[in-house]
């Protein structure tokens, strides 16, 4: 009898706590999923330029998002529509990227977009994005479509009323950004498209110059952002391409005027949202997707191939420590920078609130609050 009681106690001790631990380990991160649906017809060059310039600013606004103390993971998808270069039978619509955490890839694809006149079928692109993307099934996750354009929302064979209602039935909000006067967007269905899917209707001037205030910390933040690249260890089949993409997106951000995009990108690279486990050995080891002792020598950079397993572990950890130190420096400088910029903005009548980034940030902040997300610095 005593043996049976002890056996039951042991089993309970092994099964229940282990199960609880497993459940805790496997608990998924809260998700912030954002699909950008951008009109790439002839008149939308300014919209694309704003998207390229302000991607990293939008990322930074949600880099520290949490729910119930757990850090959220940001996923971004990208569609283009209304472009004559796209297939007519598909409604002049293209999924550029599915929902992804690879922010460098998002930047790369934004810089590759080209405009050309076409038919802009808003209802159809909303329907396609709702159906084809791997949206979370959790009601507590934030799922948001943002569609931007300047033609009537009613174009095409797919009724936007049904498309917006189908999106919200799956917990996906649809926010509309009309590139033109507010009242014209209301008259042409853009506001109604958002109301039907619990989103926000906003208007912007797609040709407006981005407001960027230079700060004393900018040069050092940008320099540290470049230094971060030296802490990455490209490995495997995707290693070289991933590392080159990272450097290329640094150059793309630096090429934009004004220079604020380069600083915002460096800040993004200091956040946990910026992860590259698919090609970076440091991230892959830290996230547990690979083990140092199991990786073949030929998959590693030349300088690591002749190292022992212990030497590889030490080298990888040293790069991880160097990266964390650089990221902390960037975060500290950015806090100083934000205070400086906030004071300067108070002195200016032009707040820059009529641009794509400001519209997305305002709407996502409201929607995040409804889903009980806490945003860093808010």
Question: Which outline best applies?
Answer: globular
C-alpha-based Rg, rounded: 23 Å
Structural class: alpha/beta
Distance between the termini: 60 Å
What is the CATH C-level name of the largest domain? Answer: Alpha Beta
Strand content: 5-15%
Largest sheet data: 6 strands, mixed
Total domains = 2
The CATH architecture of the largest domain can be given as 3-Layer(aba) Sandwich
- The CATH H-level superfamily of the largest domain is von Willebrand factor, type A domain
Report helical residue fraction: 40-55%
Provide mean pLDDT, rounded: 88
Low-confidence runs of at least 5 consecutive residues: 1-24
Strand order of the largest sheet: 5-4-1-6-7-8
Could you list some keywords that capture this structure?
378 residues, alpha/beta, Rossmann fold, 2 domains, 6-stranded mixed sheet, 14 helices, 13% strand, disordered N terminus
Descriptive account of the structure:
It is a single chain. The protein is α/β, with parallel strands linked by helices. It has two domains: 198 residues, Rossmann fold (3-Layer(aba) Sandwich), CATH 3.40.50.410; 129 residues, no CATH class. The chain is 49% helix and 13% strand. It is globular, with a radius of gyration of 23 Å.
């Amino acid at each position: 009898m005593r043996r049976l009681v002890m056996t039951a106690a042991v089993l309970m001790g092994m099964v229940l706590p282990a199960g609880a631990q497993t459940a805790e380990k496997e608990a998924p991160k809260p998700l912030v999923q954002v699909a950008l649906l951008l009109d790439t017809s002839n008149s939308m060059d300014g919209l694309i330029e704003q998207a390229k310039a302000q991607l990293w600013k939008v990322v930074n606004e949600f880099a520290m998002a949490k729910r119930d103390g757990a850090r959220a993971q940001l996923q971004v998808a990208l569609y283009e529509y209304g472009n004559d270069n796209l297939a007519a039978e598909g409604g002049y619509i293209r999924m550029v990227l599915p929902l992804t955490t690879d922010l460098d890839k998002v930047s790369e694809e934004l810089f590759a977009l080209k405009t050309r006149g076409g038919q802009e079928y808003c209802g159809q692109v909303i329907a396609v994005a709702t159906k084809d993307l791997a949206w979370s099934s959790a009601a507590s996750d934030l799922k948001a479509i943002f569609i931007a354009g300047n033609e009537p929302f009613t174009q095409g064979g797919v009724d936007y009323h049904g498309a917006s209602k189908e999106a919200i039935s799956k917990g996906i909000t649809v926010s509309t950004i009309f590139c033109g006067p507010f009242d014209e967007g209301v008259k042409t269905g853009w506001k109604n498209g958002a109301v039907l899917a619990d989103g926000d209707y906003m208007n912007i001037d797609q040709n407006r110059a981005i407001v960027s205030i230079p700060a004393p910390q900018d040069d050092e933040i940008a320099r540290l952002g470049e230094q971060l690249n030296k802490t990455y260890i490209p490995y495997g089949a995707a290693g070289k391409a991933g590392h080159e993409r990272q450097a290329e997106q640094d150059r793309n951000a630096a090429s934009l005027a004004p220079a604020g995009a380069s600083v915002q990108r460096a800040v993004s690279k200091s956040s946990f949202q910026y992860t590259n486990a698919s090609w970076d050995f440091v991230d892959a080891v830290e996230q547990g997707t690979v083990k140092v002792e199991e990786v073949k020598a030929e998959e590693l950079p030349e300088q690591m191939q002749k190292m022992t397993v212990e030497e590889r572990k030490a080298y990888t950890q040293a790069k991880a420590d160097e990266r964390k130190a650089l990221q902390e420096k960037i975060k500290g400088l950015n806090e100083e920078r934000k205070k400086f910029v906030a004071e300067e903005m108070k002195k200016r009548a032009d707040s820059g609130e009529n641009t794509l980034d400001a519209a997305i940030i305002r709407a996502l902040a409201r929607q995040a609050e409804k889903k009980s997300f806490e945003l860093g610095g808010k």
